[in-house]
Design goal:
The complex is a heterodimer of chains A (about 600) and B (about 325). Chain A is built from 21 helices and no strands. With about 600 residues, chain A is mainly α. In chain A, helix 3 runs parallel beside helix 5, helix 9 packs antiparallel against helix 10 and helix 12 runs antiparallel to helix 13. Chain A starts with a helix and ends in a 6-residue tail after the last helix. In chain B, helix 3 packs antiparallel against helix 4. Classes of the chains: A mainly alpha (about 600), B alpha+beta (about 325). At the A-B interface, helix 4, helix 10, helix 11, helix 12 and helix 13 of A face helix 3, helix 4, strand 7 and strand 9 of B.
């Protein structure tokens, strides 16, 4: 396919407001792979960065788990990174390790994978656009993100080491009062820079979804994935600036001698206010947890419907629920601060808002469960991961209400229960959804199928051990174990949790081990995977029905016209007229049955079109 | 549980040392190890409210989770690829109504129960400061958290904070059973959080502000001489994990005896120039609340003045100087 041949349709599009300009694909290596403005290439760039840092963050987690299973003993293999202490995790190493584990996983693994990768890859392809609204800004977003990665990596090599004030970076511990040294400053700067990258991405996604939808692609005809990513972008653009403000003030406190967050000693009201930092952080921080789950919810809405071969149940309800969560996420942040000495009235109000979030969450769950009910479920790897996400998110969501309630939070606050809870939602659910998405879109991204057998091994190992690890943590917290303890067994009342911690660590090591099939599968499929057809899953969204695998540089030769929503499965007219169980979003329904309809043909469809 | 002879030996040694040096027994009473998973031992008057709410909610969410898993398993096995999918968008009036009613029922039962009980528990117990402050025998403690220890201060016999006869202890606190204990806490460096797992409460100590909370040991759940642990639950630097303290529970008479001795020994080592001895503050009155402590102190001083006229004049003089 030569872009030149299709350029006509692009240039001659003056009369069609939906037609977009076709740019010729770049030819030089630099513009093709480094400074690329192609959303598909940028998606892959985010993917590589995210996967590398996911491994990095995961290895840091293993060091924490080693310390809790065998406190103060030499860390095998990873000990080489702790040369100065002879391979042992020291209290100073330990605080850096858990701080960087959190920051890396949130800002440099989940964010690039869930938002950077899926946002870039899926949004233009799913709404029928040739690229993002601002391709240059898109490239700038990625390379700004790379700057923050450089800052993060550099922070490990400076004197006094990297940050150690926890991922929340609470002042005054994060000021020079508690964490002197260049490392902490570099990390706060990295957060600021990565925030700037996220805002650029967010502006781009929002505009693209509003402006570049294909003709006929109404709001409720957009796939759930796009909805999730769009709402996430709105939260990003609204709340990351607040984090940016906090980061700048903190950097000033660290380097310019200001006292925004530094207060005088012992009841003396002087200087700044440490609580101000917490307010700024959580005004951003609570929306952030929804930033990291909304795209996953969107992906779930789609995958669950696609592989149940059944329309998404009450799709509008799911979308409204996601919108409701987006709005509510902005007014619940106070539940992170129930034990800071908050005004009781404020505490009770935040508790009420927090509990109200369970209503849209229930709607979403009921819709997912109704979607798979009476479906024709195909247990492909992406579907298994989608079901696994519902499972772990169910656990994580249900345990959240204990923490949203002031009185129960008085006991559970800052225990391992919190750690287990937010890992189930932000880590387990987000990563299982990410893996589900990777297995699902890999054929479109690289034109090759992933191995289903290795994928299923990866799924079962991951879902079993991720559940065990985080339930182990919740049980430890329920029994009273505080979080962030270098050696928890200093305390007599949790000494008996030593074996629980040991087992939890073993499960964590197994969880890491079960990522090996994924790595093997990924590279094996990339190099020698079975060639993917245009629509291997037999689904109706535009990236599968109208773009090749992988798509050409300009995605669509002709921008498709959309007639219906993304979840038309088991449609009686489709069975009758097309001889298959689905209709594409931009597929015209013939008035009479004929065999050779778009997307593969009747024989193919009757035999059970979806891969298993 | 297998018995640990070493533990018994240690307990015996501690007991022997304790008989020889009474001060040491207060500092290092043997703390029984928990034996099973689950909420740690409750020694408080109000912790059972939290335990009940946690357990009831745990039952609710377990039921919901089990229903969800059974639903998913049934769907996966019954409605597999051999089953013909139903064409249903789930957007009929009936379907939406059913969904709304289900969500509402779950919300009002599970979250409603949490909301009602938590609000009630807060206003009756955990955030009910008048209840504690009005108690004539409430014990007040000022707490100064710093990396990585807890400095605590009791007012001593003169009932004034930050004076020579204040009881000053480090990490190892003593409280009476069945009397409310009100803590006002601050921090000198970074944020710490004073946590009492056996009372189910905690409160942040933040530089620049004075926080407060109260709790009460219950004679029904604890016996005199019991010791429980104090933990720090807010990451406060490298030795966060070592910021451990103990809390010894005594009956009222033993506590008063301890107060007298501890005050005398604190006074003997008092140094007015030492900043580590003078970090206290006048007991803080919170906005929109009467100054209960002052009222109690005044009442006590008035009754003391009636019984002994000479000491009474000085006491009244102190009070007057303060109010100016």
């Amino acid at each position: 396919m030569s872009a030149h041949a299709h350029a006509d349709s692009g240039h001659g599009a003056g009369h069609n407001p939906f037609e977009q300009h076709i740019h010729p694909p770049p030819t030089s290596f630099f513009y093709k792979y480094i400074w690329s403005t192609d959303h598909k290439v940028i998606a892959k760039q985010f993917m590589w960065a995210g996967l590398v840092f996911l491994l990095f963050g995961g290895l840091l987690a293993m060091m924490i788990r080693w310390q809790w299973a065998f406190p103060g003993t030499k860390v095998p293999v990873l000990g080489i990174f702790l040369r100065r202490s002879g391979g042992i995790v020291t209290p100073a190493n330990y605080q850096s390790i858990f701080t960087m584990h959190g920051l890396i996983m949130i800002f440099f693994a989940i964010t690039p994978l869930l938002i950077g990768m899926f946002g870039n890859f899926c949004i233009p392809l799913m709404i029928g656009a040739r690229d993002m609204a601002f391709p240059f800004l898109n490239a700038l977003s990625f390379w700004t993100f790379v700057v923050s990665l450089v800052l993060i990596v550099t922070s490990f090599f400076v004197q006094l080491g990297t940050a150690g004030a926890g991922w929340t970076t609470y002042a005054p511990l994060s000021t020079n009062v508690g964490t002197p040294g260049l490392g902490q400053t570099l990390v706060v700067a990295a957060i600021f820079v990565t925030g700037a990258a996220s805002i650029m991405g967010g502006i781009n996604y929002i505009t693209t979804v509003i402006r570049l939808r294909a003709p006929g692609m109404g709001w409720f005809k957009m796939p759930g994935t796009v909805w999730g990513l769009w709402l996430t972008s709105i939260l990003n653009v609204l709340f990351i600036p607040v984090l940016g403000a906090a980061a700048i003030l903190l950097i000033l406190d660290r380097t310019a001698g200001t006292q925004f967050f530094i207060a005088g000693a012992a009841g003396v009201q002087g200087g700044g206010d440490p609580l101000l930092y917490q307010h700024l952080f959580w005004i951003f921080g609570h929306p952030e947890v929804y930033i990291l789950i909304l795209p996953a919810w969107g992906i779930l809405v789609d995958l669950v419907s696609f592989f149940s071969r059944k329309p998404a149940y009450f799709y509008k309800g799911s979308v409204y629920a996601m919108i409701a969560v987006t709005v509510l996420s902005a007014i619940v942040y106070g539940h992170h601060m129930f034990v800071t000495g908050m005004n009781p009235m404020l505490g009770k109000t935040f508790m009420l808002f927090t509990l109200i979030i369970s209503v849209p969450a229930e709607v979403l769950f009921l819709n997912w469960l109704h979607t798979i009910w009476k479906g024709s479920i195909r247990l492909t790897t992406p579907m298994l991961f989608a079901l696994g996400t519902i499972f772990v998110f169910g656990l994580g969501g249900l345990t959240g209400i204990f923490l949203g309630t002031v009185s129960t939070d008085l006991y559970l606050h800052d225990t391992m229960f919190v750690v287990g809870h937010f890992h189930l939602t932000m880590a387990a659910a987000a990563f299982l959804a990410i893996f589900g998405g990777i297995y699902f879109w890999f054929p479109k991204m690289f034109g090759r199928m992933m191995d289903e057998k290795l994928g299923k091994i990866h799924f079962w190992g991951s879902v079993v051990f991720i559940t065990l690890v985080f339930c182990g943590q919740m049980l430890a917290g329920y029994s009273g174990q505080q979080r962030r303890l270098y050696d928890p067994f200093q305390y007599t009342y949790i000494k008996h949790l030593r074996s629980l911690n040991w087992w939890t660590s073993m499960f964590a090591f197994m969880l890491l081990g079960f990522q090996v099939p994924f790595i093997l599968n990924f590279f094996k499929s990339l190099i020698a995977g079975e060639t993917a057809t245009q629509n291997p899953w037999q689904v109706g969204t535009l990236e599968w029905t109208h773009a090749s695998s992988p798509p050409v540089h300009h995605n669509f030769d002709v921008i498709p016209t959309v007639y219906r929503g993304p979840h038309e499965y088991a449609h009686p007219d489709a069975q009758r007229l097309l001889g298959k169980d689905w209709i594409g979003q931009a597929e015209e329904l013939p008035s009479e049955p004929h065999g050779a309809a778009a997307g593969g043909g009747a024989a193919d469809a009757v035999a059970g079109p979806v891969r298993e | 549980m297998r018995t640990n002879p070493k533990k018994w030996l240690l307990a015996l040694i501690a007991l022997a040392l304790g008989t020889l040096f009474p001060g040491m027994a207060l500092a290092a009473g043997p703390i029984p190890q928990e034996t099973s998973y689950g909420l740690p031992r409750d020694v408080s008057a109000d912790g059972h409210r939290i335990d009940w709410l946690i357990k009831v909610t745990l039952i609710f969410v377990t039921i919901l989770f089990v229903i969800m898993v059974i639903w998913m398993l049934l769907a996966v096995f019954k409605h597999n690829h051999k089953h013909k999918a139903e064409y249903d968008h789930g957007d009929s009036r009936h379907a939406i109504m059913v969904g709304m009613i289900l969500s509402a029922v779950i919300f009002f039962v599970v979250d409603g129960n949490l909301w009602v009980n938590a609000t009630r528990d807060l206003s009756q117990a955990f955030w009910n400061f008048p209840k504690a402050e009005k108690h004539p025998e409430a014990v007040r403690i000022e707490l100064n958290a710093h990396q990585w220890a807890w400095d605590a201060r009791y007012a001593g016999p003169d009932l004034e904070f930050n004076t020579a006869d204040d009881i000053v202890v480090l990490n190892d606190l003593v409280i009476p059973i069945d009397r409310p204990v009100i803590v006002q806490l601050v921090s000198t460096d970074v944020i710490h959080s004073f946590s009492l797992p056996n009372f189910r409460v905690k409160m942040d100590a933040t530089p620049g502000m004075t926080n407060r909370f109260w709790f009460m040991a219950s004679g029904k759940r604890a016996k005199p001489g019991d010791v429980v642990e104090i933990g720090c639950t807010q990451h406060c630097g490298t030795n966060h994990y070592k910021m451990r303290g103990t809390l010894k529970l005594l009956d009222w008479e033993a506590f008063q005896l301890w107060s007298k001795e501890a005050s005398a020994s604190s006074k003997a080592t008092y140094d007015e120039k030492s900043p580590t001895r003078n970090w206290g503050w006048k007991w803080k009155r919170f906005p929109n609340e009467p100054d209960w402590y002052k009222q109690q102190v005044d009442a006590k001083k008035r009754s003391a003045a009636l019984s002994s006229p000479t000491s009474g004049t000085t006491a009244v003089a102190t009070t007057e100087r303060e109010s100016n």
